[in-house]
Write a structure and sequence with these properties.
Two copies of one chain form a homodimer. The first copy, chain A, contains 17 helices and ten strands. By secondary structure, chain A is of the alpha/beta class. An eight-stranded mixed sheet of chain A has the order 3-2-1-4-5-8-9-10, with helices on both faces. In chain A, strands 6-7 form a two-stranded antiparallel ribbon. At the A-B interface, α8, β9, β10, α11 and α12 of A face α8, β9, β10, α11 and α12 of B. Chains A, B: GO terms for molecular function: glycerol-3-phosphate dehydrogenase [NAD(P)+] activity; NAD binding.
Chain lengths: 356, 356
């Protein structure tokens, strides 16, 4: 039996508590400064509002100001915040974390500093006090995992990734159940690049929902699945390019972190909802302000986080712009309010090169 | 302007006529011995029953007994039959084909002879008279292409594959339109293995439709997308293994032929319908006989075509059985009426090996 702190009481952070409490571990769930309402509800014994399920009775919910108390004696910290919360988390943990407590991050994203792209575990590490940076062990979770399904104990397959195989085996042992199937991978770059990029490519696949709504079904009843599938494939191909470029393995691309996670993300959610609005010819800034002002749209967040850096890297020749036409189109749509036009001529260009 | 014969008047064979006639080519559409009704309808000016659209007025429909007349002077033969028709086609063409006429096959499948697996273009070649086998050029089409959408002139992205780049460029030039986007690839093995296997893996993803119907939504409304995505990813991973094993390139896996075509095939169709029945605990032989006696289910056809050979190759050590748990499960379901159980312990085993 272990004692585990989960930081972030949104749907994903809280869903992770289900395999943990099912395995008999003690779980302390600490909300962020934005999770006050959720923690109040859980403390009063109500279901989690996003998961629509009660957490285990053994779980202890804490507000963020009680972090120091909640973290006492824990064996593991799980990060369940979204990509915007990672800097807050680094700061919050700085005064209370011991370097021997490993961190398991559910958060997905990439960061750009104008010069290069970084995976989120590295951003987190850089945000911690210098004395921890070398010693703290950070692992991460990737793979297709809709939180509501995990919390309902429906079969979910994920990969735990990190550089220390012994730690990964230990973490997998803590969380594995007969519905939460955990594999491990030391290809941290590959996994993290895949799971971050899937959000922006799911946003791209979502465009087709809007295109179809705008044009309607064809006279013979035909939809636009061919187009959605082509965008899906272009997304995977660009993911493979960036994974390789950043030093990851292509194997992560055609397994759970890449193709599995993009598939599940295209089944609905906020990226798809925003994609639809963009496909209906709405500009990003307008769609965000009018229809989704309070939602975090991870695909758009990623475009904003790395857009400038990607373009700078293309300009310097560090990235091949021809290999990333869809990513660059999505960056233009989100960062510059460009219209949602598919760059047909530029698609699969890299494929043609590689194929020959 | 070229003169082109399409052999097979089903939905896919006929759909290919749309970009061809839009480009001003003369198209002769020859039905197989099973397409008599369709050809009669087209000759009478009615819409194609499966596509629910009229073909171009310039298109000439022929019954199969008129093949010798229809093939006279053509520059290209397009094969639009399904995998069961390939031997019939080889025989039918044997007496009328000139070896300088190239063949472009839409047909997808693999064959097993107990010893090894072969891609369909090689099966076709072997079925032609010996005097043609060396000289006739065979190319093929792969990628996400629902026939009804192509015929409705909705954006469709495909790869033409073959060993002769000049021929591929010429064929792409004949068929390319502003809605039919054609790339080329000389990785014929990779493309053909991907587009054949996608049928059996779409059948596997389809199981989840039945699982969900059987168990219903969870108390919190959760579906089973995580499970479907994991099966999708396992399918892609096994595809990558077989592509590499047969001498193809992994690049085809994470592009249009692999991930794109599997994605579109999971959006519905006969593989999904059969998958649902199997997921509802019906045995394959019963489901086929009672509910889909007259349907070709390509995923099941593939399992039947290669099942024995795959198992023999695993037994001999020519294939790693641990790398193909899902394919072998689907073979057991289709060939031996095994129940539809997911082999969780065996999933992603190869990934773990490769990742480390």
């Amino acid at each position: 039996m272990a004692k585990i702190l989960i930081l972030g009481a949104g749907v994903m952070g809280t869903a992770i508590s289900f395999p943990l409490t099912d395995n008999g571990h003690i779980v302390h769930l600490v909300g962020t400064h934005l999770d006050g309402d959720i923690i109040s509800k859980l403390q009063a014994g109500y279901p989690h509002p996003g998961l629509r399920l009660k957490v285990a009775e053994s779980l202890k919910p804490y507000t963020h100001d009680k972090l120091a108390e909640a973290i006492e004696g824990v064996d593991l910290v799980v990060l369940g915040v979204n990509s915007h919360g990672i800097e807050w988390v680094a700061q919050a943990l700085s005064s209370v974390l011991s370097p021997e407590i490993p961190i398991l991050a559910v958060t997905k994203g990439l960061a750009g500093d104008g010069e290069k792209l970084s995976i989120l575990p590295d951003v987190l590490r850089a945000g911690l006090p210098v004395k921890y940076q070398k010693d703290v062990q950070i692992a991460a979770i990737g793979g297709p995992s809709i939180a509501q399904e995990l919390a309902a104990r429906r079969h979910t397959c994920v990969v735990f990734t990190g550089t220390n195989q012994a730690l990964l085996d230990k973490l997998a042992g803590l969380l594995r159940t007969n519905y939460y199937h955990v594999w491990t991978s030391t290809d941290m770059i590959g996994v993290e690049v895949c799971v971050a990029l899937k959000n922006v490519y799911a946003l791209a696949v979502g465009l087709v929902i809007g295109f179809l709504e705008k044009e309607g079904k064809a006279a013979n009843g035909a939809d636009m699945h061919n187009l959605a599938a082509a965008i899906f494939a272009q997304g995977m191909q660009e993911t493979a390019y960036l994974v390789e470029k950043m030093g990851g393995k292509s194997h992560s691309v055609y397994s759970l972190p890449g193709t599995g996670d993009l598939y599940v993300t295209c089944q609905g959610g906020r990226n798809s909802r925003m994609g639809r609005l963009l496909g209906l010819d709405m500009l990003y800034s307008q769609a965000k302000a009018e229809y989704m002002p309070n939602d975090t749209i991870e695909g758009a967040s990623l475009a904003l986080a790395i857009g400038e850096t990607v373009e700078a890297m293309v300009k310097r020749g560090d990235l091949d712009g021809e290999a990333l036409p869809l990513l660059r189109t999505m960056i233009a749509i989100v960062c510059d309010d460009a219209p949602a036009n598919i760059p047909w001529d530029k698609f699969f260009a890299n494929a043609a090169k590689e194929f020959r």
